[in-house]
Amino acid sequence: MPDVVEDGLSAAIEPLKDPQLQILCRRFFQFVVGADVAAYSTAALIAQVEQMRAFAQVRAVNTPLAEVRDENDSPFTVGMIVTDDMPFLVDSVSGELSLEGRSVRLIIHPQLVVRRDATGQLLEILDLDVDEGRPAGAIAESWMRINMDRDYLNPDGRSSANRLIQVLADVRAANADWQKMRAKAIEIAAELDAAPPVTLPLEEVTEGAELLRWLTQDNLTFLGYREYVLATVDGQELLVPVAGTGLGILSGEPEAGSGSASAVELPIAVRKKARENRLLVLTKANSRSTVHRNVFLDYFGVKVFDESGQVTGEKRFLGLLTSAALTESIVDIPVLRIRYQRVMDELELVAGSHRAKDLLQFLETYPRDEFFQTHAGALVELSASIMQLQERRQTRLFIRVDDYQRFVSSLVYLPRDRYTTAVRLRIERLLVDAFDGVSVDYTARVTESVLARLHYVVRLAPGAELGPIDVGALELKLAAAARSWEDDFTSAIVERIGETAAAPLLHQFSEAFPEAYKEQFSGAAAVGDVLTLADLVENELSLRLYRPAGADERGMRFTVMRVGGPMSLSRILPTLQMMGVEVIDEHPYEITPVGQPVAWILDFGLLLPADGVIERETLAERFADAFRAAWQGDCETDAFNGLVLRAGLRWDQVVLIRAYSRYLRQIGSAFSQDYIQQTMLSNVGISSDLVRLFEVQFVPAGTEVSEQDAQVGRLILQIEQALSEVRSLDQDRILRSFLSLIRATLRTNAYLETRKVRQAFAIKLDPKLIPDLPLPKPMFEIWVYSPRVEGVHLRFGRVARGGIRWSDRREDFRTE
After folding, report:
1. Distance of alpha carbon 154 from its chain centroid, rounded?
2. How many Cβ atoms are within 10 Å of 753's Cβ, its own excluded?
3. Partner of 558 at 20 to 30 A CA spacing, among 26, 204, 677, 745?
4. Digit-coded pLDDT (tens) for 766-804
C-alpha cells in the first residue's frame, strides 16, 4: 500500500467498528498512489468509500450501475460505476470520457469479491482477490470512482451516465461472445478450405482462410460479428442482416428503420464493390470502438459466393488489431506476405540485396492497418515511389482513397528538422480543406532518418462524393507549409540579390532573429529588414510607416530600426504621442548578427487621429522625417508636431509655426504655449495657409515681383475669410497675431539653395507692423530660434552693436 494509506488511513481503519468498511477501505486504496489522494483528509477518504458502498447496495444480475455528478465544495465531477468484473473496463470507460472532452484526474478501481441476494442486495464484501477461489454464490465485481474536471457548461451528468451504461453493455457483449466469434472465424476458414469459390484463384482463398486463423491467434480483439445477404428490391441493391447471426457488439437484433443495422440501400461506392469478385473486404469501419480503445474499428469481411461463383452476401468481423499483430513481421502474416512478394517481383528486387532490405524496412514500418487495406497494385506504385524518395530532403504526399469513399489516407514525408507541432497542424488543415473532411486522426513516425513520416486519415461526411484531387498542387501547398522560416529567408534573399551577395548576409543573419520576430514576420519580409540593417551606420535610424493588410483607415504600423544600443521607450512614446497618434502596442526585437553590433527593430501599432489625416500620399515620408528630426534634436517634441498629420506639413514647415509661437512669448503674449498649440491644431487649414504665405514671400522662386504680390494677396484674402469662421475670440486673436508677424517679416535666413530649413534661423521683423509689440518699438527686431537657443536682437538704428539676448520687455530696457 502507498505510504499515505499505510501511515494515515490504515491507522484510521483499525478503530472502525464496521468490519465490512475496514475490508472495503483497504481494498479500495490498495493500488492508489499516495500523491493522488494526498489532498484529502483521512476522514474524507473514508467518506468516499462509504459513498461508493451506498451506491453499490443494490445491483440486479448482469446490470451495471453508473452515475456522474458534481461533488459539493469540489472542482471535480465524480463518476461511480459498479459492474461485473471483466476485461477492458477501465480503458473503455476512460475512452468514452475522453471522447466527451472530460479530463480524467484519477480512477480508483478496486476489484472485489461480493455476495448478493436474488434481488441484487449487497450482503457481504469478502476479503479475497478476484483470481482466488471463490465460494459458491460469490461474484467478482469492478467498482470505479472517477475524479474529472467539472464541466461547467454541461453540469447535468445523466447523459454521460447513460453513455457509460451503453459502453459497459458493449464491453459485456464483447466479452460474452469473443469465444464464439473466434470459433466462427475458424469455422469460416474451414469452409473455405473445403469449398473454395470457383471464380477465385486458389491462392487468394487459401491466404484468406489462413488470415482468419491468424486473427484467432491473439492478433485481433474480436468485438462484433454478423452475416449479411445481398438482395435486389425494386432495382435497388440492399444489404440485409441475417437475423440470429449477430455476436458481440452486433448481437442486437436489427429492427426496421434502425439505420445501418437494418436493410439499407447501398451507396454507389459500396454498390460497386459489393459484388466484386474478391474474397476479403479489409478496411476500417465508419464508427469508433466503444470497447478497449477509442479508435475506428478494424473491419474484416469475407464474401459469400453461391455455387456459380456469384457474390450473395458477406460475413463481417469487427474488432481491433492487437499490439502483437501490429509488430509481427509481414513475411509471417497471411495476405500481407503475398502482397510483399508481389512488390518484390514487380520491382524486380533480389532477396537479400540492399534495395530489397530497404523495401522490407519500409513495409514493416508502413501503418499496418493501411497495409491490410491497400491493394497489391497500389502498394507496388507506392513502394516504387518511396524507394525513389530514399533519404532526399523533400516533402512528398501519397494518398489513398478508401474503397467506399468514407475517408482519405494520406502519407506525408517531410525533412525531420521541419517537423513541429505547428507544421503538423498546418498540414492537417490543408488536407481537411482539400478533401472537405469532417474529422482527422494522425500518427507520426520520427526516427534517425532525415525524413519524418506523418499519416493522416481524413474522414468524410456520410454520403459525400470526393471530387478529383490534384495531388501535385496539394503537395506543393504541403511543401510550403512545411518550409521553415530559415528556408523562406534563404530563398528570398538569394532570389533578391543573388547567391554571391547573399552569402555573407546569410552567415551574419541566418540565426540573428528571435523566435518572436519569426512569429510575426515571414522570412521573405525579413530580407528587407536585413538589407536595411546591413546599410545602417551605428546609431542611425531607419523608419517606416505603413498600413498592414486588413487594417482600417486609422490602423498603421511604425517600424524603427537601429544598430547600436537599445532605444528608450520613455523617449519614443512621447515623441509619437506628440505627433498626434495613439500607440496601441509595441514589439521590440533584438537582432544579433554574427560579428556585427547588436541591432534593434521596434514595431509599434498606431491609431491615426479620428478626425482625419491630410495628404495621405506623402504621410509615410513626412511622419518618418518628423520622428527622426525630433529624435535627433533637430526640432522640439511638442504638440506642434501634430500638424504633420493633421495639416499635411513637413517637420521643417512646422518649425516656422513653432518659431513664431516662441516670438509671441517674447513679446509678452497672454496666451500659453499649450493654448497656442491647441489653436493651431484646431485650425489646420489656416495653419497650412500661414506656412504657404511665408513660403510665397521668402522661398526663392524666380517669379516676378508682381506675380509674387498677387499670390500673397490671394493667400491673405483666403486666410481672412477662414478667420471669419473661427468662433473663439482668443483663437482669432492668436491666428491674426501669426498673420501680422508673417506680414511684418522683412527678411529671413530660413532657406538654403536646396530650400531646406536651417536648424536655426533668423527672421528680421518690422516692429511698426506688429500691433501687439509693447512700446517703445525699435527700428528692427531680429528673432533667432533653434531647439537649443532662442533670443532677440533689437536695433534702434540702421547700424547697431551687440548680440542676441533675451529681453524682459521692460520700458527702461536699453540696447546698443
Report:
1. 26
2. 6
3. 677
4. 999 998 888 888 888 889 998 888 888 888 777 766 677
- Peptide bond between residue 776 and the one before it cis (omega within 30 degrees of 0): yes
Q: Are 654 and 635 in contact (CB under 8 A)?
A: yes
The amino acid present at 610, given as its one-letter code, is A
Distance, in Å, from the CA atom of 368 to the CA atom of 374, rounded to the nearest integer, reads 10
Q: Contact 299/283 with Cβ under 8 angstroms?
A: yes
Report the percentage of the chain scoring pLDDT > 90.
64
CA distance 372 to 814: 109
User: Long-range contacts of range 436-441, CB-CB < 8 Å, 24 or more positions apart?
Assistant: 436/460, 436/461, 436/464, 436/466, 437/407, 437/408, 441/295, 441/296
What 8-state DSSP symbol labels residue 749? Answer: -
User: Any idea what DSSP says for residue 751?
Assistant: B
DSSP per-residue letters across 34-82? HHHHTTS-HHHHHHHHHHHHHHTSB--TT--EEEEEEPTTSSEEEEEEE
d(CA 221, CA 174): 9
| Degrees to nearest 5, angle at CA 80 with 74 and 86 | 145
Q: Which three cell numbers stand for residue 170?
A: 458493449
Alpha-carbon distance of 608 to 556, in angstroms, equals: 7
Residue with cell 481494498: 27
> In the 8-state DSSP scheme, what is residue 121?
B
Task: Judge whether 801 and 649 are in contact, CB under 8 Å.
Answer: no
Fill in the DSSP letter of residue 777: P
Return the closest-CA partner of residue 344 out of 326, 366, 363: 363
Alpha-carbon distance of 804 to 762, in angstroms, equals 11
Q: Are 170 and 88 in contact (CB under 8 A)?
A: no
Query: What is the rounded distance in angstroms from the CA atom of residue 591 to the CA atom of residue 751?
Result: 40
Structure-derived torsion over alpha carbons of residues 51, 54, 55, 61, reported in degrees to the nearest 10: 150
pLDDT digits (tens, 9 = 90+) for 98-131: 988 888 999 999 999 999 999 999 999 999 998 8
Of 675, 507, 528, 533, residue with least CA distance to 590? 533
DSSP-assigned states of every residue in 517-552? HHHHS-HHHHHHHHHHHHHPPTT-EEEEEEPPTT--
Q: Cα separation of 611 and 630, whole Å?
A: 24
Sign of CA dihedral 775, 779, 785, 788: negative
Instruction: Output the nine-digit C-alpha cell for 296.
Output: 475506428
Calculate the alpha carbon distances from 72 to 78, 155, 204 in Å: 10, 12, 62
Sign of the four-CA dihedral 527, 532, 537, 539: negative
Helix H or strand E encompassing 761: strand 761-765
Q: What is the pTM of this model?
A: 0.71
